[in-house]
Amino acid sequence: MSRSQRANDPPLNDRARRLLRALVENYVQEGQPVGSRTLARTCGLDLSPASIRNVMADLEEMGLVSSPHTSAGRVPTPRGYRLFVDSLLEVKPLDSHEVRLLKERLSPEMDTRSLVESASDLLSAVTQMAGMVRVPKRDHAALCQIEFLKLSGRQVLAILVMNKNEVQNRILQLDRDYTHSELQQMANYLNEHLAGLDLRQAREQILQEMKAVREHMNTLMLAAIQLGERAFCDEDRDEQVVFTGQTHLMGYAELSSVDKLRNLFEAFNQKRDLLGLLDNCIHAQGVQIFIGQESGHEVLDDCSVVTAPYQVDGQVLGVLGVIGPTRMAYERVIPVVDVTAKLLGAALNSRN
Question: Contact 47/107 with Cβ under 8 angstroms?
Fold first, then answer.
């Protein structure tokens, strides 16, 4: 978890800590400002409502809670949530039944894209928030075989077999027509020179060959190199992150204004900022939590983002997580994200 603000957290005595914890837990569960009488019943301390009001006034002065309306009780601020998450939260591990259900939905028999989509669906369904998964960078997949299939006009379907059991299809628009025989010869040439390389290595090899022996290539060999370069190019950024369950956010009162929803859904559609946020988490250790403005993106100022990286053979390939209101059940969301990341990595690892 991020501890970036721990040094700035105000010191709290045990009574204030227990009252803040009770306030956060009540507010997360009920979604309504919490009054002193409610806290008196739920905090486990023998305190009068007047004493609790005094402590709440101190917490408000510290910027940990706020009063949305006069005499309407108090709610946690992002800073209050941060202190709660960093030092008061008790994360509850998932039970074996929940882990088994998640594992069943992330089968190694599925291809990479299906696994990613299933992981995002699971995160959304279990948390009732928006799930997201950064698609593994295809550079890490080893090429086993490439085939070219002639389509209508000057279109060709490039079929890439990766890691023995994953197939990627890409439609390429060519500048001229090629016969089936020519396409087969080009595929044979690329398979002979590039099989076993990952996509980054394959692109580098192609570029090196184009520079080194271009003048010695016949027309068909040069066409094969050029076609391979296009087949191995980076995937479109729109396909690099999968979002599901965005409509769940409409059910939270604090996110339900038309302007907030419009901005959030525009961010989901554009993906650029959210993709950057996920990429920034790739080298982080374990679960990361961004509360409100900590994400660095204004559209998420009323949200919390919980992420975790997933690995294959000890190498981080991507990040997954959920986006929801700051009023989320962190003790529940954190283990769901953590376990899903581990299961996705295990499913991808067993396929290699």
Answer: no
